[in-house]
Amino acid sequence: MRYFAFSLARELGMTVRVLLSTIDSRELSEWIAYFRLEKRRSEERKKPSPEQLAEKLKVAFGGLDSGVSRPTHGRNRGKRSAPQK
Predict the structure, then answer these.
(1) CB neighbours of 56 closer than 8 A, spacing ≥ 6?
(2) Interatomic CA distance for residues 54 and 48, integer angstroms
(3) For every residue of 10-77, which 3-state class applies, written as one string?
């Protein structure tokens, strides 16, 4: 709780002594809850939406369903294809 009081005092631009003399424990608890919610909301905003995730997957695996051949990354190394007639 003391660490949070220092963080909140810094955020509000006051000393810890001034902060603790002007708010009660209930308000301090509400500030703690507020910052927890803000942190959670911030983390949620960072997560891609299902639509964004689908778009990233399309970009990453774009050629798989369109008939476009992709490099084999050396898996066919050393194998020769049959001569074409």
Answers:
(1) 48
(2) 9
(3) HHHCCCHHHHHHHCCHHHHHHHHHHHHHHHHHHHHHHCCCHHHHHHHHHHHCCCCCCCCCCCCCCCCC
pTM over 0.85: no
Query: Of 13, 4, 3, which Cα lies nearest the Cα of 36?
Result: 4
pLDDT single digits (tens) 44-60: 888 878 888 888 888 88
Q: In angstroms, rounded to a whole number, what is the distance separating the alpha carbons of residues 51 and 37?
A: 25
Closest CA to 7 of 42, 40, 31: 31
- Between CA 70 and CA 57 the distance in angstroms is 16
21 has pLDDT over 90 = yes
**Helix pair 25-46, 2-12: axis angle to 10 deg:** 80
